[in-house]
Every structure is written in C-alpha cells, then in structure tokens.
Amino acid sequence: MIFTVLTLFPGIFDSPLKESITKKAVDKGLINFNIINIRDFADDAHKTCDDAPYGGGPGMVMKIEPIYRAMEYVEKSAGRPRYVLLSPQGRIFDENTAIRYARSKHLCLVCGRYEGLDERVLNLVDEEVSIGDYVLSGGEIPALVLIDAITRCIPGVLGNEQSSIDESFSGGLLEYPQYTRPDAFMDMEVPPVLLSGNHEEIRKWRRKEAIKKTIFKRPDLMNRFTPTDEDRKLIREVMEEIPE
Ligand code: SAM
C-alpha cells in the first residue's frame, strides 16, 4: 500500500516513519511512503502557499492551486489515490475506518496548516477525517495517527495476526487486561486463572474481563456491541457482581 502525504512540513515525518512497526512494514515491502512538499508546487518566486482570508479575519488560509498541482503530480506518477483531508471538522477516525482504509492500494493524506485550507479543496478530496474534538496546529500529527493505525490493520504487518483481532475495538469491546512477570508485585497479584494453564478457562476469563472493562470504561461501546449467547451470560454475571 502506498501512503502519499501532502504537507508544508515534510520534516515532521522523518523520524516517526523510520521506527518500529512502520519501519518493519516498509522493510517487508507491505507499505511505502511518498512525502510531498506542497511548497514545491507553488508557482511564484517566494513559493507562496497561503494568503489572507477573503472577508477579513485572523491568520492565513492555504491556497488551492499548489495543492491541486501536487495532486496532479501524484496522479501522473501513481494514478488517482483515495484522498483524505485531515480536518477537525471531519468524521471522527476509528478502528473501522482504519480497517476500511487498509484495503486501499493508495491513500493520499492532505495536511492543513494555519487557519486551514481554502474551502474549495473539499471538492478535490474523497473524505474529511478528524482525530478528535480538539484543534491541532496542523494535519501532520493526525496523518501520522492514521498511518500508524492503518498500517497495523494491513495483513502481514503485525507478527501475530491474533494480536490485532484481540485488540480493543476490533470485536466491539476493549481488550482484556494483560499481565507479565513477576506473578506478584508488592501486594498486587496476577489473577490465578492466567497461571493455571487451562486455555478454555483463560479464554472465558478474558472475554468476561473485556466485557467488564467495556461496561465500566466505555459504556457507549456496549450499545453497538452484538453479543453472542455466551456474551449475554457473561454480561449478566458482570452486572450481578456490581455491589448495590
Ligand atoms: N481553523 C480551523 C477550524 O477551526 O476548523 C482549524 C485549522 S487547524 C489550526 C490547522 C490544520 O490542522 C487543519 O487544517 C487540519 O489539517 C489540522 N487539524 C487540526 N486539528 C485537527 C484534528 N482534530 N483532526 C485532524 N486534523 C486536524
């Protein structure tokens, strides 16, 4: 899969993409990056990419022409990608969107800066995506968030495919609690079932704990969760354990 990024600050991507999971995915030939400086597509001597807003007001707005030309360049060399504009006004990014994007051959992430982009850029992109209800200084960190989450969903990227299946959100629940050595630290002990070696008991315990965590930490997720018969039984057990 190709990730193309259109940005005014390509240096932001230098180090994060060269570490850990994204680096391994590049080394395995599963993804590659094409970080494009929008400024290279400005047509004046000063390489101007922003201008004052029509109608007045604070700050500067990113101009449409350099972005349009950068897109033309991308399409000439690699065909038309799926264009995603990072914006606090977009639909909130979630795991299902990451899974959907992971099926694309070529994704182009468009990063805004300053007061944002000329509204007409919206006509050039396929989707507008936000990483949360707060305003950041630019779309580069949101683009890195998308790249990381999407890369994890590409088959072959994570060593153990089960780890993405068990992870929070993938089955509609938060992930069960995890422990590692030592089995006792101060007065905090690892739940004995995890040391029992009984795989069926461990599976059931994890499912119940995942349900419990979701009910207590993210009850909103339970409204969208489709339980199996076993899950219904476990939900009842969790509810019965709540002290009055
Ligand atoms: N004036 C804009 C508004 O109020 O909607 C905010 C502009 S923001 C300072 C500059 C750029 O950062 C945006 O164009 C967008 O690309 C990016 N950005 C900021 N917050 C974001 C968020 N929560 N999710 C995705 N992108 C964001």
Let me know the largest β-sheet: 5 strands, parallel
The strands making up the biggest β-sheet line up spatially as 2-1-6-5-7
Percentage of residues in strands? 15-25%
By CATH's scheme, which homologous superfamily of the largest domain applies? SPOUT methyltransferase, trefoil knot domain
In the CATH scheme, the class of the largest domain would be Alpha Beta
Low-confidence stretches: none
Quickly count the helices. Answer: 8
CATH topology group of the largest domain: Alpha/beta knot
Question: Can you describe what's shown?
Answer:
With about 240 residues, the protein is α/β, with parallel strands linked by helices. It has 2 domains: about 1-155, Alpha/beta knot (3-Layer(aba) Sandwich); about 170-240, Trp Operon Repressor, Chain A (Orthogonal Bundle). About 35% of the residues lie in helices and about 15% in strands. It is built from 8 helices and 9 strands. The strands form 3 sheets. The protein has a 5-stranded parallel beta sheet with strand order 2-1-6-5-7, with helices on both faces. Helix 6 (about 200-215) crosses helix 8. The termini are far apart. The mean pLDDT is about 95. S-adenosylmethionine (SAM) binds near residues 117 and 139.
